[in-house]
Design a protein that fits this description.
about 350 residues, alpha/beta, Rossmann fold, Beta Polymerase, domain 2, six-stranded mixed sheet, 12 helices, globular
Length: about 350
């Protein structure tokens, strides 16, 4: 199943995107909802919060007094870290349980406001970020949530910056404030990128690649994609994100190093080299890389003269129609050729 991480700053319009993705058929897992559930009355999460912050964070009915708790942790990095250490592991555990219970072939969208702040961007096949102008966000918080402009600015400042989110994004959805326009962008993303990506992932096949590297997908001016260096923080950051994801799914499987291949042709295709000791190690990576969205291309064994010793490489290619990425898994010059 395809996993999508959805995030965005406060009042950027993420809830509109999440609702539309659910209408289109995604299984939506809302981290804010889970965060409330894991500290509901009678849970060990609530007991842990009371142990850490005292009984003053409870209402007379025994519920969590979010206002009182917020007053304790907002602006206090230590207190916020303590609270996050209680809530976040429980939220992730519950999210994992719901993912495991989803039907095979489902598209899982995890709505996580602090996805970037908690370093989860490499845990998903695709990261979608919703962005809006800061003035528009402040106006929405003042008009719709009754906040003062000063409080709104403080909430924005406490989160990741737009630049940090863009660096973590595969797709950036720009929200100009018109709900219908944002929903149309989500529809394009769903039909032109997410569904084909999921179909390719389930079939274990790479995305079809048109001339120019990227086969297509959500290509409006307001949907920035990282396919050949547009959006997503640039080519180097795209490679870094993919490398972290591949490292995550292949821990303890014998990878020696992961590196970008400089001077790869064609220039609009990102190429990453994964160096392993031998063919046996390369074969151990086939399934985890396929699950991560990089199936091995059948019979695509090549001898890369950029690898010292001219050792053999096995080609993996992304299932994502919105980006052009090849991964060479190469035997080390010090290892056997298999």
């Amino acid at each position: 199943m395809l996993t999508v991480g959805l995030t965005g700053g406060i009042a950027a319009g993420k809830s509109v995107v999440a609702a539309r993705l659910r209408e289109l058929g995604a299984v939506l897992i809302d981290a804010d909802v889970l965060a409330r559930e894991v500290v509901a009355p009678g849970t060990d999460g609530l007991a842990a919060v009371v142990d850490a912050f005292g009984s003053d964070v409870l209402t007379g009915d025994g519920d969590l007094d979010r206002g009182a708790l917020g007053g304790l942790v907002f602006g206090d990095d230590g207190a916020r870290a303590t609270l996050n250490g209680i809530v976040h592991p429980r939220v992730r555990a519950e999210a994992a349980r719901r993912i495991a219970a989803a039907p095979r072939g489902a598209v899982i969208v995890q709505d996580i406001p602090l996805l970037v702040e908690t370093g989860q961007e490499d845990a998903f096949h695709l990261v979608v970020v919703v962005q809006a102008a800061e003035d528009d966000r402040i106006r929405r918080m003042v008009e719709q949530r009754g906040m003062s402009a000063e409080d709104a600015r403080s909430r924005i400042a406490a989160q990741a910056t737009d630049e940090q989110r863009e660096a973590a994004a595969d797709v950036v959805l720009a929200n100009s404030g018109k709900v219908g326009a944002l929903q149309r962008r989500v529809d394009e993303l769903w039909h032109e990128r997410i569904l084909p990506f999921n179909e390719n992932l389930l079939a274990g096949r790479p995305a079809a690649r048109a001339r120019g590297g990227v086969a297509g997908g959500a290509g409006t001016a307001d949907v920035a994609q990282d396919g050949a260096g547009t959006g997503g923080g640039g080519r180097a950051q795209v490679v870094e994100r993919i490398a972290r994801r591949l490292a995550r799914v292949s821990a303890d499987l014998g990878i020696l190093r992961i590196e970008r291949v400089e001077g790869a042709e064609p220039v609009d295709v990102l190429m990453i080299r994964v160096v392993v000791p031998d063919q046996a190690a390369a074969d151990r990576l086939v399934q985890p890389f396929a699950d991560a969205g990089f199936p091995r291309v059948r019979d695509a064994r090549v001898w890369d003269d950029r690898v010292p010793g001219h050792r053999p490489c096995w080609l993996h290619r992304t299932c994502d129609p919105g980006k052009a990425v090849d991964v060479q898994v190469c035997a080390s010059a010090e290892g056997g050729s298999g």
